[in-house]
Design goal:
This protein is an alpha+beta fold. It has one domain. It contains four helices and three strands. A three-stranded antiparallel β-sheet has the order 1-3-2. It starts with a helix and ends in a 6-residue tail after the last strand.
Length: about 80
Amino acid sequence: MFDYQMRSQNAPGMGKDESKLEQALSFFATELGTGATPAKEIEKKAAAAGIAERTLKRAKRELGVSSFWVGRESFWGLKTNGQ
């Protein structure tokens, strides 16, 4: 799993965009730590937390969050070893 805290320690002079990204990375770790969650739910909670959609997508890409469909609903989940 990506260690977002280690990244923060190794990035002196981190700009505003990076701190927003760190917030989004932490958000994903919290929200997806217990398993896959409907994407719409994650997007809604992220918006309420002040995380922009573009920042959320960057964090999703950086963490390698997987997307999959169950019926007509999209889910996001953290990849585990073996996936």
